[in-house]
Amino acid sequence: PPVIRREEYRAPDWLVPEVELDFALDPAATRVTARLHVTRNGTHHRPLRLNGDGLTALSVTIDGADDDEAWRMAGGDLMIDLTGATHVIETVVEISPQANTQLMGLYASTGMLCTQCEPEGFRRITFFPDRPDILSRYAVRLEANKVRFPVLLSNGDLEESGDLEGGRHFARWVDPFPKPTYLFALVAADLKANVDHFATMSGREVKLAIWVAEADLPKTGHAMAALKASMAWDEKVYGREYDLGEFNIVAVADFNFGAMENKSLNIFNSRYVLADPETATDADFDAVAGVVAHEYFHNWSGNRVTCRDWFQLSLKEGFTVFRDQAFSADQGSPAVKRIEDVRGLRAAQFPEDSGPLAHPIRPESYIEISNFYTATVYNKGAEVIRMLHTMLGPQRFRAGTDLYFTRHDGTAATCEDFVLAMEEASGVDLSRFRLWYSQAGTPRVKATLTHEAASGRAHLTLEQSVPATPGQPDKAPMPIPLRLDLFGEKTQRSFGGERLVMLEDERLDVTFEGVGERPVLSINRGFSAPVIIESDRSAADLAFLSAHDDDPFARYEAMQQLMLDTLVGSVANGKADHGPVIEAVQRTLTDPMLDSAFIGEAVLLPSEGFIGDQMLIVDPQAIHQAREALRRDLGTTLADAWRDAYDRSRANRFEQTPQAKGARRLRNVSLGFMMASKATDVPGIAKAQFDAADNMTDRQGALGILSNVYAPERDAAFSDFYARYRDNGLVLDKWFTTQALSVRPDTMDQVIDLADHPDFTLNNPNRLRSLVGALSANQLVFHDPSGRGYRFLADMVLAVDKLNPQTAAKLVPPLGRWRRFGEAAQTAMRAELERIVATPGLSKDVFEQVSKSLV
Ligand code: B3K
Ligand code: ZN
């Protein structure tokens, strides 16, 4: 398959300022008529290329006339020779939404019809130059059976609607804002709306509607509240106002990813819309609000200013993730939010950055762009924007975004445009900073602190190295903003307060004066840069910071590092002194100044995956044993403290406050450590929590903890959970996931059985990921020495690839990590990758991921 390169970008030969689309909708056969007003862009004689994917032209007219000599097919595309400067092209095609298993283009989901066009789904609907730098005004007419599809939605404003003969009706939508194809959407469905209103800062009234199945209406309140809060936040923090008379969100059960920011018609995976205490955990509630905000913020960072080409994806995604993270931090606890985001980055992006699929946040080439909606483009992209915010400060950063939005409104921009606006508005030279866009790999910063008691001086040496990644053997040093502080070991006082140090070159020496006692280094506070810090801080120093640092993130980080050092030592030597960790956990757990939400995060041990990432060769069995040994020791030694925290966090009834949420978190964490102690009464306590739960956080928390043990309570809880929620797809996903995450030795057998369960299906991406995604996240079971985990995953990739290549390709990366495992595992993992790549008829999505993983 061809490789697309960033350097080969060329402006379009033809533009399409106006388009009229007419849909005669039907699940089996939908007729699409498209009238494109095209204009020649520049002086050239090249034909008009209209992309098509699986389309057959039923008719093509040029300026109203049939001219079969003037057009031809080239692959799936339609090529038309044109003589003038402007023409009107009309094409008619017929497509089958219900036969569309890729969930790209126009497809059917639980009786409704909906679209997904980003990145290249529009070409599966009609012939069109399907690239984000062509912006068109859309007028869309929808026609369908009124009983089956009473609701007809598209982008913009509803201009006209009415009844037709034969039980059909129509609606005409006009979007005044020019947009690229990937932001087009339509929905035809039998849904009901939760309707509300928002008055914008200039006093315009916007009608807000969240469309779901009637029975789900009671679960839309949280999404609606989040939408209104996002609209107000974007006005307050970025000065950005909503620009149309209505804003619609539609929930869909079958969706390839989280949600989609189509202009004024956001389409969502239902798991990011529906939430009530009975069926959604606190984490689910947060995810709903975060995704609603993310998609809403795209209206400016993505839609009003869009991307010139797909290499610029992080322009909208990194920036928008940064915006939604800041929003969520403002709505809740900034410290806990930062901890969660960094944990997510380390779980998903760091491994990507150190593996065969590593790429810069602005990639240089791709085979299939769908493979580049990655943690690097999104989450590292957000960290890059955050560094700009840190370096420039909030005012100059805001001046930069103002300039960027004003200058590029209504156009398709590049990452370079963004950096240039930041540079011009702030007066800060960002020449070297641009390396963050072009270089892949997670930089490592070695920090060495020495102290001369006599002169009262401390010397800090910082040295950076950026590892080689595929196609980038040699790296230049990058500008790294590090927030740091020094604390006196005895007085616990900061010397001069926090400062921002820019490590611009390979090495930097900093001297601190007036340091009268031995200092302890607190570095990369708030995770100011997405780097790995290597410092030789002792267990005692880390314990000190975990108790006394005034930056909550740094406190968390010190505790994590202490745990990590202990666990890595334990894996290497077969044993370790658990004392310092136990002491630090005890101090945190019983510190009356700390809130429960923070404690719940801080006392958690690093995941098995993250421990493995610290090692050259990963031994999942040894890591599991070392981690379990520490967990048991913590559970036993601090038994009373856990029980105390558990009891203290018990609520009489469900409340949706930050305090109550923190208490639920700490309660589940405590129950986990109680179970780790192996005290015989804990399965009963967990089962009692499960039974008495008036919310999903408590219920799923208990179920997850029970999932790892052999006890009658476990089986009873799983059957009860199934019986209760078998009709709720989103909750049933949890039933699959919880079983696939169990560390019991029979988990692989259970997963294989679950793949045959009547409720399992490859057609629904949520259900697929609930089992297969969970298994590959389960380090211990996925890497079972039998190799069955690898074989199961490869079988799934091959089966799903026939239906839905985009989703199949997302399952591949865990196999691509083979280099990091022992010889037997390497051989087994590679064999599976080779089996996949040798399969005839593979999609280019899976081919790209697998072939790159084998190199
Ligand atoms: N922009 C969409 C993602 C589309 C993914 C296509 N494979 C959702 C988002 O990031 O907001
Ligand atoms: Zn996005």
TrEMBL record:
Residues 61-183 form the Aminopeptidase N-like N-terminal domain. Keywords: Aminopeptidase, Hydrolase, Metal-binding, Metalloprotease, Protease, Zinc. This is Aminopeptidase N. Pfam families: DUF3458 (PF11940), DUF3458_C (PF17432), Peptidase_M1 (PF01433), Peptidase_M1_N (PF17900). GO terms for biological process: proteolysis. It catalyses: Release of an N-terminal amino acid, Xaa-|-Yaa- from a peptide, amide or arylamide. Xaa is preferably Ala, but may be most amino acids including Pro (slow action). When a terminal hydrophobic residue is followed by a prolyl residue, the two may be released as an intact Xaa-Pro dipeptide. CDD domains: M1_APN. One of its GO terms (molecular function) is metallopeptidase activity. Residues 540-854 form the Peptidase M1 alanyl aminopeptidase C-terminal domain. Its cofactor is Zn(2+). It comes from Sphingomonas crocodyli. Its EC number is 3.4.11.2. Residues 223-433 form the Peptidase M1 membrane alanine aminopeptidase domain. Residues 441-535 form the Peptidase M1 alanyl aminopeptidase Ig-like fold domain. Belongs to the peptidase M1 family. SUPFAM superfamilies: Leukotriene A4 hydrolase N-terminal domain (SSF63737), Metalloproteases ('zincins'), catalytic domain (SSF55486). Signal peptide: none annotated.
